[in-house]
Amino acid sequence: MALIVQKYGGTSVGTTERIKNVAKRIARFKKEGHQLVVVVSAMTGETNRLIGLAKEIQTTPDPRELDVVVSTGEQVTIGLLSMALMEQGVKARSYTGQQVRILTDNSHTKARILKIDEDSIRQDLDDGHVVVVAGFQGVDEAGNITTLGRGGSDTTGVALAAALRADECQIYTDVDGVYTTDPRIVPEARKLDRITFEEMLEMASLGSKVLQIRSVEFAGKYKVKLRVLSSFQEDGEGTLITVEEDSSMEQPIISGIAFNRDEAKLTVLGVPDRPGIAYQILGPIADANLDVDMIIQNVGYDGTTDFSFTVNRSEFDNARAVLEQVKTHIGAREVVGDKSICKVSAVGVGMRSHPGVASRMFRTLAEEGINIQMISTSEIKISVVLDEKYLELAVRVLHKAFELDQVS
Ligand code: ADP
Ligand code: ASP
Ligand code: MG
Predict the structure, then answer these.
(1) pTM of the entire structure?
(2) Which superfamily, per CATH, for 257-401?
(3) Is 175 helix (H, G, I), strand (E, B) or coil?
(4) Distance 212 CA to ligand 2 centre (A)
(5) What whole-number distance in Å separates Cα of residue 241 and Cα of residue 225?
(6) CA of 211 to the centre of ligand 3 (A)
């Protein structure tokens, strides 16, 4: 008998018919004698619909009230799935995040899990129930409902698996594992049998939304056995996220191509080139709680320099407003911005021991006439910022150039 945490995403519970199918799958695991905690997302499209409603009332919804609204999506699915399980003759009980007591900090819409009370879940499991928990939500110390950021149900699943010391955490979604890139963009993308935490963390943080980044962080930290699988297929091993690099096989240099359309670029032109200027620009941005990703500063030869960085697209207007004030303060010439950019990244632990990845990447983009606006690298990734119109082409040609479409 194993204790398994399963998480089903929005598409997997998108209709009552699909919820019934999920219940059948869970019933099969139960029959095999396993204990099950099941985390579900809201039905597909529901979270977007709820955010849309909130925005019809307030252009920038109050974060506390927004969490009250969007957390209702998951409350519907836990109730429906529990009913469907009962119809399968399986004992089931649903819990909201607040009822479990998934304690979070108070950063509404992007809260972090601090602690999980597992007593009532353990009790129910011992009594033979399947425990169904609402993903994406928690409660802060003061009793306010919080949510964990888009895609947050993955993190609920992994955090529960860590707290319960589950044997495995299975993330069921609409693809049968983690691919070399998003299979919706590149049909030739290949499913990976295994990927290291390190690589998965980079892929997730660089835009591969198949797993929320915090869920991967949690799994790595608490050594949760994590697997991504399809809820639409009967069998299949999915993709295992592993701690170790697989030494029995020749590592591919690149494991995957990730991309992100959610960024925007800001440039301060004609910045006086003197010590402390980066701090004078980015200090106020940090004070406004805005996250900065890539940064580029050119060496100035005429006493001035240009300073560019990227932010999340939803924070573009706020960042620009901050920069307009900074500009006057530091005596810069102009602030310009570009919302139609994208970031494309090649990720792979094999990069450490293989030089020449960057040049192959740049050559491939050059051959397609794609201009690179910004570059950043780490030990296991190379990212470039491009005009958004080149996103799909760039992902496709890089996927091919690194031979990710070929079975290794
Ligand atoms: P869920 O609703 O189940 O949480 P998501 O939409 O959040 O599902 O994540 C699954 C989707 O992630 C897939 O449909 C796929 O389009 C996308 N995706 C992006 N990058 C990858 C990748 N490298 N491997 C697999 N899927 C990916
Ligand atoms: N329903 C939430 C969202 O759409 C959480 C999740 O699906 O993981 O982001
Ligand atoms: Mg998701």
Answers:
(1) 0.92
(2) VC0802-like (3.30.2130.10)
(3) coil
(4) 10
(5) 7
(6) 6
